[in-house]
Amino acid sequence: MLFNTLNFAIFLPIVFLLYWFVFNKNFKLQNILLLVSSYFFYACWDWRFLFLLVFSTLLDYYTGLKMSDSKSKAQKKFWFVVSVSINLGFLGIFKYYNFFSESFAGLISNFGFKINPYTLNVILPVGISFYTFHGLSYVIDIYKDRIKAEKNFIDYSVFVSFFPLLVAGPIERATHLLPQIQNKRTFNFSIASDGMRQILWGLFKKVVIADQCAIYANQIFNDAGEQSGSNLVLGALFFTFQIYGDFSGYSDIALGTARLFGIDLLRNFAFPYFSRNIAEFWRRWHISLSTWFRDYLYIPLGGSKGGMWIKIRNTFIIFIVSGFWHGANWTFIIWGLLHALYIMPSIIFNTNRNHLDIVAQGKFLPSIKELAMMLITFSLTVFAWIFFRVQDVTHAFIYISGIFSKSLFTIPTITPLVLFAFIGLFITIEWLGRQNQYAIAKFCDNWPRFFRWSFYYLVIAAIFYFNGTEQQFIYFQF
Q1: What does the alpha-carbon distance between residue 119 and residue 384 come to, in Å, rounded to a whole number?
Q2: Which partner from 173, 224, 358, 369 sits 20 to 30 angstroms from 180, CA to CA?
Q3: Beta-strand (E) ranges in 124-182?
Q4: Are 268 and 21 in contact (CB under 8 A)?
């Protein structure tokens, strides 16, 4: 079930009404409702993989209890290894087996041996990377004695499978979400209305910006060899706005939906395209994944301690692993490697903790220096996105070589003026609302009621106008 469909528009109010008007007396019954609703939500995609989600939940719940009950460190470690090995094993089989099989066959062929790799013809279970990382963070935190195992299976299952975040995050922590599940929630009209406003903005990003950009990005990327350099630049820009509108739009809908049920999820985006360097970009892009890798990989590897070489090594490791997390393709690894190279000046010169505040804090416009830094960072990001979007490395080099050709200086033949206008409006609203949790959180609070509601109705009208086809969210494939 997709957020941008009629099915979800029917599903959400039904769950909301049952939650607050039928089961509102007992938060434990509310949790059962959330669990059943979440499993139904997931089963609407493919009911067969619901068993995998349930198995993963049972595995981490059981091994968590066994670790907490362990009488020795060796016994605790045994159950920890069991959980991590099985979780990563399933992830490896469904997501990475074919990649390693084909890569090994290609490597062997370089030495004159020809083998036909055995590949698996399986569908990647939607959201497997996200709910696997939920479980991994939980068992790691228990192993490290940061938390105690949750004994209530319903509460733990809701933590793993809460439907707003189930298939594309944010990647939650037990320390943040479980306490909210374990306590009574009280309906708050202002929080719920804010949630609806965030859902509205998320749908605008997805339907009006991402899905429309996808039309032209797909057209250009799928025919890269025949496109002019100027068209190829436009294609990269279209995809840049597509993936941001798509993924941050999903996150806005997820966070807004959770607020309707009195639950606060981790923020996942903080206006990343206004970043002044790559380090700041990664503090603002897919925040839940970036902090996950920081806490569960970068710091255990030694983090920034132990000298410059250790810091550089660890930085490359987390970016390459981050790229590989996104998909079993060399293009994702190159994408991660590029960002590791981009961030090196900040690491070497110890400026990676600069720019912790939003750009032009308290000002209407950025300074010339800030504008230049944003443009450079944005350009580097756009170039890296090419590797994220292409089908393979060969496709990437065809695309890039086409950009750096004489046709770069020709007039683009693909010029959707209406879409350009909406992108310009989108950037303007995001800029004006950049100091808030999301762009329109307080965008028109000071406007007269008539103009405020006129703005909302215009956004709704645009969503209905462009919502001609149901486009799957990009991050469902990860």
Answers
A1: 29
A2: 358
A3: none
A4: no
What is the torsion angle, in degrees rounded to the nearest 10, for the CA atoms of residue 201, residue 207, residue 208 and residue 213?
130
Tokens standing for residue 128: 């497997």
Query: CA end-to-end span of the chain, whole Å?
Result: 16
- Model's pTM, two decimal places? 0.92
Helix (H, G, I), strand (E, B) or coil at 315: helix
SS3 394: helix
- What is the pLDDT at residue 76? 95
- Amino acid symbol at 168: A
User: What is the spatial distance between Cα 281 and Cα 240, in angstroms, rounded to a whole number?
Assistant: 14
d(CA 128, CA 477): 9
Check if the beta carbon of residue 320 is closer than 8 Å to that of residue 336.
yes
| Residues assigned a catalytic role | 326
Closest-CA residue to 382 (of 273, 307, 280): 273
Q: For residue 460, what are the CA distances in angstroms to 197, 442, 451, 463, 467?
A: 11, 17, 14, 5, 10
Tokens of 244: 């941001």
Instruction: Provide the CB-side half-sphere exposure for 153 (13 A, CA).
Output: 9
Beta strands in 92-188 (DSSP E): none
Sign of torsion, CA 312 301 127 42?
negative
pLDDT by residue (tens digit) across 365-392?
999 999 999 999 999 999 999 999 999 9
Closest CA to 143 of 62, 84, 75, 67: 67
Residue-wise pLDDT for 103-112, tens only, equals: 545 555 555 5
Which token pair is 199?
Answer: 């859902």
Residue holding tokens 């999301």?
Answer: 438
327-339: per-residue pLDDT in tens?
A: 878 999 999 999 9
Q: What is the DSSP string of 142-179?
A: HHTTSSPPP--HHHHHHHHH-TTTTTT-----HHHHHH
